[in-house]
Write a structure and sequence with these properties.
Helices cover 77% and strands 5% of the residues. It is mainly α. The chain has one domain. A two-stranded antiparallel sheet has the order 1-2. α1 crosses α8. The protein is globular.
Length: 236
């Protein structure tokens, strides 16, 4: 009982903190978008320096999954719904909201219930966090730790999972989503573009050069964000 009360107090503090940072985070994501665009342009400028061996296998995986999805699996299936609800559940548990139930409906769709008030991060998580792709990335890191390298099939798997998540996001993101109502429609519009630039940019950077690629990507983001801020100050 005492432990449960402590968890409840910590959960309330987390929810309060997320309420405070909600709009600062939204505006930060707006700021990230042009910096991410500049970073992607930088990748094009230095394209001759990129690790194309990895990227080609990544593209093979993405193209293979896209072809299968377009030709065979035209509609969203239970796998996407389950991943969607699991993502909600993971962020619920991360913010100390015990998950009570996950259920998939025979007619499509599903839901996840949890204890506690909830927060915007739980509501919006499946629309910016590509769970399958990040799971594959962490699996790749584990494989590298075990055998000392990244096999080519790892990059194929990353390409397939990224493409899977992109299809899933495209199907799930629409104005009728009740999750957007919970998080707030204006907040959702502000938050999602930048958040997806970060998450999918991270996966791409990892596919290109592993952890070093991710660090390089975030250095570019920091550099261009700083440059844009200095340019804004000069403008005023």
């Amino acid at each position: 009982m005492l432990f449960g009360r402590r968890i409840s107090k910590i959960r309330n503090k987390i929810n309060f903190f997320l309420k405070i940072v909600k709009w600062p985070v939204a505006f930060l994501m707006i700021w990230i978008v042009p910096a991410a665009w500049q970073a992607f342009r930088r990748y094009y400028v230095i394209r001759h320096q990129l690790n194309w061996h990895n990227l080609i296998y990544f593209a093979i995986g993405a193209g293979f999954f896209a072809a299968i999805r377009v030709m065979i699996l035209l509609r969203r299936g239970k796998a996407e719904t389950l991943e969607h609800e699991i993502t909600h559940a993971l962020f619920a548990m991360a913010t100390l909201h015990p998950v009570e139930r996950i259920e998939l409906k025979e007619t499509g769709g599903g839901y996840m219930t949890f204890s506690g008030e909830g927060n915007w991060l739980i509501a919006i998580a499946p629309y910016f966090f590509p769970l399958a792709a990040f799971t594959m990335m962490f699996f790749a890191i584990a494989v590298n730790q075990a055998i000392g390298c990244f096999p080519d099939w790892i990059y194929i798997g990353l390409g397939m999972t990224v493409c899977y998540n992109l299809f899933s996001f495209a199907e799930q993101t629409h104005p009728e989503q009740t999750d957007f109502k919970v998080a707030g429609y204006l907040f959702t519009i502000f938050f999602l573009p930048g958040a997806n630039c970060l998450t999918f940019g991270t996966i791409f950077a990892f596919s290109e050069r592993g952890i070093n690629g991710v660090l390089f990507f975030y250095k570019l983001l920091l550099y261009y964000s700083t440059q844009n801020f200095q340019a804004l100050l000069k403008f005023f």
